[in-house]
């Protein structure tokens, strides 16, 4: 399996912004150059294991949270992310989201069975 560097970058950017950090600040905390953080967030560069660990530590997350799109055994990461997304939703919003997910799941199963 190949690593999805673009997905890793998207997760890093989302987590950085959630912590109200600039690329400059994340770079300083993780011992990187700001331009390197930009390249990583865009998926334009492959990051080394030490860089990945430093960024995870700077963001206060585990490495599996950053790699979950490339790891098949990361169900709990997705469940936690979904729980966070739903945590501030109203009852009505949750209902719409559940109905949307239910329809999406149905269509995905229908599509995969026709291939």
Care to describe what's here?
The protein is mainly alpha-helical and 115 residues long. 72% of the residues lie in helices and 0% in strands. The protein contains seven helices and no strands. The chain has helices at residues 5-18, 23-30, 34-41, 49-59, 63-67, 75-87, 91-114. Helix 2 (23-30) crosses helix 3 (34-41) and helix 2 (23-30) crosses helix 4 (49-59). The longest helix is centred in the C-terminal third of the chain and has 24 residues, at 91-114. The protein is globular and about 45 Å long. The mean pLDDT is 92.
Write the layout of secondary structure elements.
Layout: H1 5-18, H2 23-30, H3 34-41, H4 49-59, H5 63-67, H6 75-87, H7 91-114
Helix pairs in contact: 2-3, 2-4
How would a textbook summarize the main sheet? none
pLDDT averaged residue by residue = 92
Number of strand segments: 0
Tell me the span between the first and last alpha carbons.
Answer: 22 Å
Any idea what the radius of gyration is? 17 Å
Structural class from helices and strands? Answer: mainly alpha
